[in-house]
Amino acid sequence: MVPDWLAAWPSQQPLTDAHLLELDAAKAAALDDENFSRSLLGALLSRVAQAPTVCHPADLSRSADVIVTRAAFELACSNSGATVQVHGAGGAAERPAVMVLGFAGASHAMLQPTVAMYREQYPSWTVATSVPSGVECAEAEPTLCKQVERLCEVADACSGLMIHTQSNNGYRLWVRLQREPRVMRKVKALIHDCGQALDADFDLDDFRLIVAKICTTSAVVQDLKRSQLGAVWPNLEASIGRFAASAFALREFVSADAMKRDLATAAHVPTLFFTSPTDRVIPCGLVEKFAAAMRAAAPQRPVRLLTLEGRHVRLLDSSRAAYLHAVRQLATESGLVVVGGATATATATPGPAAAPAKPAPAANAPAEGFTISMDPASQPLGTMERVLEIQAEEFAEDLAVGAHMVEWSERRLRAYFEAGGVE
User: Fold this and answer.
1) Which of 283, 131, 260 is nearest to 207 (CA)?
2) What is the DSSP string of 341-403?
3) What sign does the CA torsion over 45, 225, 135, 22 have?
4) 3-state secondary structure of 158
5) pLDDT tens digit string along 44-96?
6) pLDDT tens by residue, 102-140
């Protein structure tokens, strides 16, 4: 249940231990209950939007406004709780798998373009998706352990594993998975898509904007803007930004210690970074700094950084050919795909009889199993939920949308938003 004190607790009065425990219990319950998660996020954001400009106790660790801002961000990191979806599971033979660990504010539906890409390139692979929640407290640990256990089961069943993190949020779940020997002994390749960067490296104003955008994006995806937050919406982003720096002073999300563990535990794994000079969420320079630190810490580790044009975690859409080529190259170099002989372990599909061995492809040829298919971005969106998700991703909440847009393609809708609502 949503804590009774959320709406009315005075900003200048510090929270008690009982308040903090009640809020932790509510956040933990929200991970397993989509409807309750929506109600709780709405209540948290409503409180933040109506908080006074300057009025909090000297001890920020007890400030209701700061703690509620942090709790809202923690919930907003995942629009799918702590769930795991698995595509292509089953069959007796072991096969490679990829885990797509989603960006902050994502849902399973928002990860579908990446899932579709892997299913097209490597039809025999298992593809698992999960979006890390920002909730980390003792009460939430049983649910978070179930999330990790489900991912470990995917690792147990595969012959080799690619980890694909999206932004800093996906990276946080990868850091947690590094504690799991069942995962680590299977990892053969890493992709860091539009990340990573340490919290300490962000410009403070950019950091405030990022936290506010993630919270408001999640509110739009969950339809809270229209159903619950309409009256306070004009104040919401500024209010979140006002308390964001203090909220994160209490807890880092991607720390230097996390990076050190990553460098120590995965020093042998070929790694590919994607970034963009126009990324407004995690600037290209911060990703370059992170990649350089990785190279310096483990010179023997193959580390490649590819700079493409496009927006944050949307490089597959804007630079598809170069993106696919880099993914296929990594899959081949890591041994997840074997080409040039009679076997193509990652992409073999069942059939009545074995096909004759193929000659070795040219050096610039696509990896075995690469298929040409219609770009998903050209297909009808199909649901209003997907229209609203794209609107939130484009930060275009001020532009009008209508039911007719479910017949539009993703490419057409994004072009509409980018043009300021003009077709």
Assistant:
1) 283
2) SS--TTT----SSPPPPPPPPPTTSPPTT------GGGSB--SHHHHHHHHHHTT-TTS---G
3) positive
4) strand
5) 999 999 887 765 556 677 888 889 999 999 999 999 999 999 998 655 457 99
6) 999 999 999 999 999 999 999 999 999 999 999 989 999
User: Cα-flanking dihedrals φ and ψ of residue 137, to 5°?
Assistant: -150, 165
Same-domain status, 26 and 172:
no
CA 362 to chain centre: 35
**Cα–Cα distances in angstroms (integers) from residue 253 to residues 197, 257, 390, in the given order:** 10, 11, 25
**In the 8-state DSSP scheme, what is residue 57?**
-
Contact 276, 307 (CB under 8 A): yes
Would you call the peptide bond into 196 cis, given omega within 30 degrees of 0 as the criterion?
yes
Whether residue 338 lies inside any domain: the answer is no
Q: Sign of the C-alpha dihedral, residues 126, 313, 148, 266?
A: positive
CATH number at residue 184: 3.40.50.1820
Quickly list DSSP for 230-266.
Answer: TTTHHHHHHHHHHHHHHHHHS--SS-HHHHHHHHHHS
- Reference 202, options 157, 165, 243, 248; nearest CA is 248
CB 31 within 8 A of CB 81: yes
pTM of the model: 0.79
Give the chain's radius of gyration (CA, Å): 22
pLDDT digits (tens, 9 = 90+) for 317-332: 999 999 999 999 999 9
Domain residue limits at 29:
17-79+203-246
Query: What's the pLDDT tens digit per position in 145-199?
Result: 999 999 999 999 999 999 999 998 999 899 899 999 999 999 999 999 998 877 6
Residue type, 235: N
